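EI: anyone free to look at a 289-residue chain?
SC: sure, send it
EI:
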Amino acid sequence: MPRKAHPRHAYLELHEGYYRVTMGVPVKLRPIIRSSRLKRALGTKSLIAANELKKPVVAEFKARIRSAWEAIGGQPRSELEEAVGWARMLSDAREGNDRYVDLIEDEIVRRTEEIRIEYARERWVDIETDMGLEQVEDPILHENSVERAEKFKAVALGKATPISLHHEEYLKGLKIKPRSLMDDRRAMQIFLQWCDERHIPPYLESITRRNAVKFKNEIMSCTGLGWATCTKYLGRIKKYWGYLLEGDLIPSNVWPKKRGWIESTNSSRTRKGRSPTTKWSYFLLERPT
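SC: here you go
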């Protein structure tokens, strides 16, 4: 088993005397992210400085990989995949008036509690009772575990539907070239990462007309991609929403109906793509060096 990198060197490598962040991309995600490794130069020769500068970059890279997994239905054996499995089991039981509905719901609650107390720190407090003071365990919960537990419960009980839940099934029904299928996955990844950065829960129930229009207005500036590419990606997302609407999986299609998604101008700047001004300038554009 390979040794883990020392925390001081994790995700760092020297390149021509300067440190840069590097993170491997799972094989299954490489066609979507279009790279085998994500890399970002930090512009420093100091290891101490590099360890501070790498933190937001590492968080961004992890978010990109996470959104790519979600774009293809979730990482294998992940909590999301588990929650979706419980949601389908519960839905089938409810539709068939199964007498095990309550049992399934109780098991979901039990599993949620397991996730909630994961990584909790032990703490004992004194509680006053009729018999005097009694010590009881009152663990200090880890913030990340609480958030994970809430997401798991919402999905497992069918109260929240992951945006990409039906995406792979939708793609299987399309009669288009593999390259075009990859455009659908990239469009989904861009949208999911945008939701993550705007703190919008990645569920169908969270995507309102207001959020859809906001994404439409921001996609060019936040990705640095050209008008034609952004329009193509928006069209892919709109067609997916149409598929969901046709299957009665959502109440309405929140995406604009007009073909002219983004206003185009005659300037060469717009035709060639805007100059990236944010960290999204690296999005989908990084290559191994």
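EI: The longest strand covers residues 37-44.
SC: 👍
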